[in-house]
Amino acid sequence: MTDRIDVPAAGEDLLDDLRWRGLIQDSTDLDELRARLASGPITYYVGFDPTAASLHVGHLVQVLTARRLQLAGHHPLLLVGGATGQIGDPRESSERSLNPPEVVAGWVGKIRDQLSPFMSFDGDNAARMVNNLDWTGPTSVIDFLRDVGKHFPVSKMIARDVVKSRLESGISFTEFSYQLLQANDFFQLHDRHGCALQFGGSDQWGNITAGVDFIRRRGGGPVHAFTTPLVTKADGTKFGKSEGGAVWLDGTMTSPYAFYQFWVNADDRDVNRYLRFFSFKSRDELLALEAATAERPFAREAQKALALELTTLVHGPDEAQAAILASAALFGRGSLDSLPEGTLRAALSEAGLVQVQALGTVAALLREAGLVSSLNEARRAIGEGGAYVNNERVTDNEATVPTDALLHGRFLVLRRGKKSFAGVELLG
């Protein structure tokens, strides 16, 4: 966790801070919510469906917004959907594949463990984990249709954008009914825990307002809701994706080094928005980093600050420092010998790691690793002084690599010029 956190404590200041950061897109009534927050702590919830074994960086908006509210004195309920995770919220592209209940149950446990470090489970506003399977599982179909389905006009359910987009291509009753399940979650949490606020991503606005309306129809409330914007990238590519696929919070699925590099490589056009969404730095600190990006974009101060803060928050300070050291060492600005084996392998895998059965000439290895297209090009690079093995310049076109040069007995770091590097792993 980060040591320094600067989050407004008063209800009015909290909402103003969230709006300044761009974290509120839709809301039921901000003035009413402002008045409610000013009157004392509110119980709020945010939900996560277990559709994989880990959350990814796109979920961080919701996770860290929940953290901001708790730091401001409010009471968190973190819902991991053991029931809704078996159904799946409709998506515009196609019907989801249903995962076996036992798989979903395993993912519930993993995601609960993953959420835990972000919140405090002690004190007057201790966080609480909840699972919607606890109230959905025991409910019969008849009871659900009578007690929940009766309150949902089909005309409103069809009006939801994602449903409208699927009407021609086809949508199952299973996915169509997801809205009822999520709305019932808000009702159940309101009834059981006094929950009066739900937030989520903007793609959940229809589900969230359905819950607000359902509570009203059942005689409850008042309750409140808001959504955060979906995170986008200026170049049009999907946020949270790297060359290896999704950027996961689980360190075994996305290494801490790759996680760090994801943020370091953020586009200058995106990084200021990312800082406001994800950083716990004060407004003055964020404005200073925004100015640095405008004045000295080549220094990447904002990206490095964001990468350090989030890697520390998600993976801990040791992994964050290891990622920084690896980043420097791979480009010749630090010692490769001091890097842990796992960090070195993760870094080389990101850059491109080729596996070989035997070590040959440096020129051949440069070609194998994809740093040059031919042996002639490799020899030219060596002759011009632009080829390195483990950060040592190679000057002999026919040089070979002794096995005692291997890092951790297995790896070599090859570099061409200042910025292009790749890894070699000796098998056997």
From TrEMBL:
GO MF terms on file? tyrosine-tRNA ligase activity
Q: Which reaction does it catalyse?
A: tRNA(Tyr) + L-tyrosine + ATP = L-tyrosyl-tRNA(Tyr) + AMP + diphosphate + H(+)
Q: What general EC class does the enzyme of this chain belong to? A: ligase
Which Pfam families does the record match to this protein?
SYY_C-terminal (PF22421), tRNA-synt_1b (PF00579)
* Taxonomic superkingdom: Bacteria
Q: Which residues bind L-tyrosine?
A: 45, 178, 182
Q: Where is the Tyrosine--tRNA ligase SYY-like C-terminal domain?
A: 362-422
Q: Which residues bind ATP?
A: 241
Which key words tag this protein in UniProt? Aminoacyl-tRNA synthetase, ATP-binding, Cytoplasm, Ligase, Nucleotide-binding, Protein biosynthesis, RNA-binding
| Motif 'KMSKS' region boundaries | 238-242
What EC number(s) would the UniProt record show? 6.1.1.1
Instruction: Look up keyword Iron and say if it applies.
Output: no
Instruction: Provide the protein's localization.
Output: Cytoplasm
InterPro entries for the chain: aa-tRNA-synth_I_CS, aa-tRNA-synth_Ic, Rossmann-like_a/b/a_fold, S4_RNA-bd_sf, SYY-like_C, Tyr-tRNA-ligase, Tyr-tRNA-ligase_bac-type, Tyr-tRNA-ligase_bac_1
User: Motif 'HIGH' region: which ranges?
Assistant: 50-59
| Oligomeric and partner information | Homodimer.
Alphabetized PANTHER family for the sequence:
TYROSINE--TRNA LIGASE, MITOCHONDRIAL, TYROSYL-TRNA SYNTHETASE
Q: Which HAMAP family match?
A: Tyr_tRNA_synth_type1
Q: Which protein family is it in?
A: Belongs to the class-I aminoacyl-tRNA synthetase family. TyrS type 1 subfamily.
Functionally, this protein is described as follows: Catalyzes the attachment of tyrosine to tRNA(Tyr) in a two-step reaction: tyrosine is first activated by ATP to form Tyr-AMP and then transferred to the acceptor end of tRNA(Tyr).
Q: What is this protein called?
A: Tyrosine--tRNA ligase
Q: What is the lineage of its organism?
A: Bacteria, Bacillati, Actinomycetota, Actinomycetes, Micromonosporales
